[in-house]
């Protein structure tokens, strides 16, 4: 009987290996297929050729201060540190799922001393005695139905989703830092504009005061000049507060206290980079948030396989061996040898519908992940279309606003000459100065929105104009 035991064990192992081909793997749906190109890119006649986008895409704006801030961002940003930790956790879970597919081996050494005074055996067996044991145990759950492999496949997909989440968080933080920096530089240029305007208004107030002292101008002209000057000073104070808040926001992005970051004023806005006439929609395949959503679909479908495998029995092969005796010197000897080989099959007979409910829940989770993935793709398409049309229209708007600024500045020069000669009232001067200030401020705002649109577009297509 014992001679047949090895052959029976071999037969069981061979049958298990053949049956391992049967899995409960469920294929997830294919990726969403977008259109060949974006609607808002078709009729745009922009620059003949847009510059290539480097790996560090923000260098396309040509601002060394922004380059240094981006370098500090990836080192100190706390959100990115959290995402890195999440990737490490997902990697550990994946490695654990892989190790579950291999046999486990444990070893132990124990020593006990017991009083056998109450024993009814021979007198020599009564009294205190020593028991020593040295053992090793191995077990292996045979993955007949693919439960462990599906769990490992799902853990791998979750790891890939976490890595894509990290890339998406890094891209989002970089884009947010760039936009905050552009807003700060816009505040700098608007402050410089207001300072020039304040200087001009002070001269106008002095001119009006002199004319009032000479009896040429009315008291209302002086009051209007004072009102205009103080309004400009109030706007400058408000901009100073806004600039400080933008600086604080950048400090938090860099992972440092707001008090430790100071950026010198620079009244220069970088030019908005040119955007290609056509952008293929396949650029969305590079977006990390879409990749993360797609991998979560794969992980959800892997859980369906895990849930379905619970309907089938589990097979565990085990083996143990060791020595047991009363003396350490003679412990490892043939008379003290103990060993065993075995296999166990476990199948749930009555579970009150738990397996059916788990399978239903896994399929519902997969449907939810699929819908979230498709919604992510649709949202990405909308974001690119929105920023394409914004970049196109803002370029035209900047041209019109630039022409309007030239006209407003020329009108201000003519009106000031007319006021000096006494042909118009000071109200005309106030109107012309306000118009020129508002027009130039609007032009700066449009340029800031241009930078924001191109910055967001680069984020939407993962920092690339072309696939690759």
- Domain count: 1
The rounded Rg comes to: 38 Å
Number of strands: 4
Beta content comes to 5-15%
- CATH architecture, by name, is Up-down Bundle
Assigned CATH class: Mainly Alpha
Q: What's the quick description here?
A:
This protein is 59% helix and 10% strand. The protein is an alpha+beta fold and 468 residues long.
Question: Would you give an account of this structure?
Answer:
This protein is of the alpha+beta class. The chain has a single domain (27-105, 149-311, 369-460), classed as Up-down Bundle (Outer membrane efflux proteins (OEP)), CATH 1.20.1600. Helix content is 59%, strand content 10%. The chain has a four-stranded antiparallel β-sheet. The longest helix is centred in the last third of the chain and has 68 residues, at 354-421. The protein is elongated and about 130 Å long.
């Amino acid at each position: 009987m014992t001679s047949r035991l090895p052959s029976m064990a071999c037969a069981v192992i061979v049958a298990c290996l053949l049956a391992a081909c049967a899995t409960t793997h469920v294929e997830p749906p294919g990726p969403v297929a977008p259109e060949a190109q974006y609607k808002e890119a078709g009729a745009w006649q922009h620059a003949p050729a847009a510059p290539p986008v480097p790996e560090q895409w923000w260098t396309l704006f040509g601002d060394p201060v922004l380059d240094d801030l981006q370098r500090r961002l990836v080192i100190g940003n706390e959100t990115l540190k959290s995402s890195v930790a999440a990737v490490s956790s997902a990697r550990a879970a994946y490695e654990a799922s892989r190790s579950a597919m291999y046999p486990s081996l444990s070893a132990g050494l124990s020593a006990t001393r017991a009083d056998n005074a109450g024993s009814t055996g021979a007198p020599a067996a009564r009294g205190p005695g020593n028991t020593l044991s040295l053992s090793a145990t191995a077990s292996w759950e045979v993955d007949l139905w693919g439960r462990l492999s599906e769990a490992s496949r799902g853990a791998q997909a979750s790891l890939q989703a976490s890595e894509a989440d990290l890339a998406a968080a890094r891209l989002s933080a970089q884009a947010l830092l760039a936009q905050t920096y552009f807003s700060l530089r816009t505040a700098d240029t608007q402050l410089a504009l207001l300072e020039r305007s304040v200087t001009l208004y002070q001269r106008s107030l002095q001119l009006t005061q002199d004319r009032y002292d000479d009896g040429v101008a009315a008291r209302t002209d002086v009051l209007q000049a004072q009102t205009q000057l103080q309004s400009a000073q109030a706007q400058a104070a408000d901009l100073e507060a806004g600039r400080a808040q933008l600086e604080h926001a950048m400090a938090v992005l860099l992972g440092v206290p707001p008090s430790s970051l100071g950026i010198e004023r620079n009244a220069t806005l970088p030019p908005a980079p040119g955007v290609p006439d056509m952008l293929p929609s396949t650029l969305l395949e590079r977006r990390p948030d879409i990749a993360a959503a797609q991998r979560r679909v794969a992980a959800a479908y892997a859980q369906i396989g895990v849930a379905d495998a619970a309907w089938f029995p589990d097979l565990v092969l085990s083996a143990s061996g060791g020595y047991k005796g009363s003396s350490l010197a003679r412990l490892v000897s043939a008379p003290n040898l103990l060993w065993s080989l075995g296999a166990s099959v476990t199948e749930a007979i009555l579970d009150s519908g738990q397996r059916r409910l788990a399978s239903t829940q896994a399929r519902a989770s997969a449907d939810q992940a699929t819908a979230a993935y498709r919604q992510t793709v649709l949202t990405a398409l909308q974001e690119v279309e929105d920023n394409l049309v914004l970049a196109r229209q803002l370029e035209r708007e900047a041209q019109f606003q630039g022409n309007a600024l030239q006209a407003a500045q020329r009108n201000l020069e003519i009106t000031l000459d007319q006021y000096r000669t006494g042909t118009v009232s000071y109200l005309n001067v106030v109107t012309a100065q306000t118009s020129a200030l508002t027009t130039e401020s609007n032009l700066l705002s449009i340029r800031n929105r241009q930078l924001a649109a191109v910055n967001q577009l680069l984020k939407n297509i993962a920092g690339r104009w072309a696939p690759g």
